[in-house]
Design brief:
This protein is of the alpha/beta class. The protein has helices at residues 15-32, 48-55, 107-118, 192-202, 210-219, 223-233, 240-253, 269-281, 296-310, 318-341, 354-366, and strands at 2-4, 7-13, 39-44, 63-73, 76-85, 95-103, 123-131, 144-148, 154-155, 171-174, 180-185, 206-209, 259-263, 288-293, 345-349.
């Protein structure tokens, strides 16, 4: 994954596959132009990389000229082809090979062919590294298409996004799938665990519980688990950097997923900022903090009732329960302000049946998907 300006791009076509395509184009041109002296007319700026590799494979005599044309603004074609550097060389009765980086709508090709025709050329052929048949609207034949691709916006190997990306030796496409990433909070007894299980199934999200991640890493004696345990054994807090590295590993395992439910993290504004940085590096972001809101007395009653069967001592002591609830509010007050400032905080009534609460949560999440 790479970031150019404000957009993220994911790896799409390898350098090896590109070189194979150029080899095939070169073989066809060598066979057809054996003993001839064509002019390669290279369309700048995008085709410089392809042209260099293609022409170096040409086995006969040839000439190389350049023309600069543009029609893109950002990721969209303007539909208006601008000639920045015009034809200023003799082309009458010459055989021309147009070298393009990519042919999509065909607007640039149409403009260039018209200019060549006015110059009295003998004939022309079109070579392009990438060709988008779905987007092509013209009738001119593309004689040497290197790779036929869908109508995705791509960068690399000469192609750019607002000036960046031309130097990349592989091709990346615009990341179009937007993840839904939820920070799910709720006081003890709010039913957060139950709702997390329902929501991950309903929206096909990955549930990442900080507690589960810690237990897994420590039990399996991973490098991060061993490091975390070394702090815990000394009675020290595990540094945020270790926790975020554990979460990063979980995110990386599911990088192609539809999103995540983060449960138990972040707990501080510093952790929230670290989570933002982690997700940004993956081309995504926190969509919302969703907090289940339940009256304290209801929570106490629920937990005391749960304590009769859960076997958890902290569910059977009212004083401990109230202390846990106070700690929750102390922690989330900071985070509530953090996400409210980003317009990403949503409080949801957590009283009612499981189905009723799920429905309320879904109303919020459906606005984000």
């Amino acid at each position: 994954m790479i970031k150019l300006h404000n957009l993220y791009f994911e790896k799409y076509i390898s350098k090896h596959k590109i070189e194979q395509a150029i080899d095939l184009v070169a073989q066809s041109i060598n066979a057809e132009y054996k003993g001839k002296n064509p002019i390669f007319v290279v369309v700048l700026n995008g085709a410089f990389h392809f042209a260099s590799d293609l022409i170096s494979r040409f086995e006969g005599d040839c000439e190389v000229e350049f023309i600069k044309m543009s029609s893109y603004d950002g990721t969209e074609s303007t539909g208006n082809v601008i000639v920045d550097i015009p034809l200023d060389f003799e082309i009458e009765d010459r055989e021309i090979i147009i070298v393009e980086d990519i042919v999509d709508s065909g607007q640039t090709i149409e403009k260039l062919i018209g200019m060549l025709a006015q110059g009295g050329i003998a004939n022309y052929k079109i070579a392009t590294l990438f060709f988008k048949p779905e987007a092509y609207t013209k009738e001119y034949k593309i004689h040497y298409p290197g790779l036929k691709i869908p109508n995705d916006f791509i960068v690399g190997y000469g192609l750019d996004y607002n000036g960046l990306g031309r130097n990349l030796n592989e091709v990346y496409k615009l990341k179009s799938t937007q993840m839904t990433n939820l920070v799910l909070f709720g006081p003890p007894g709010a039913g957060k665990g139950t709702q997390a299980n329902v929501l991950k199934e309903k929206y096909n999200l990955v549930h990442i519980s900080t507690g589960d991640v810690f237990r897994y890493n420590i039990k399996n004696k991973t490098e991060l688990g061993t490091l975390a345990k070394s702090y815990m054994d000394k009675g020290q807090l595990v540094p945020d950097s270790v926790t975020i590295d554990m979460l990063a590993a979980e995110v990386e395992k599911n990088a192609d997923g539809k999103g995540f439910i983060f449960d138990g993290f972040p707990r501080t504004s510093a952790q929230a900022k670290a989570l933002d940085e982690l997700l940004e590096s993956k081309g995504t972001a926190v969509s919302a903090m969703v907090a289940l809101e339940v009256d304290d007395e209801v929570l106490v009653k629920r937990l005391l009732e749960r304590g009769k069967t859960s076997g958890r001592p902290d569910d059977s002591n009212e004083e401990v329960i109230r202390r846990r609830i106070r700690v929750y509010y102390e922690e989330t007050a900071i985070l509530k302000s953090f996400y409210e400032a980003k317009d990403k905080y949503f409080g949801v009534d957590g009283v009612g049946s499981i189905e009723e609460i799920t429905e309320r949560l879904s109303v919020v999440i459906d606005q984000l998907v």
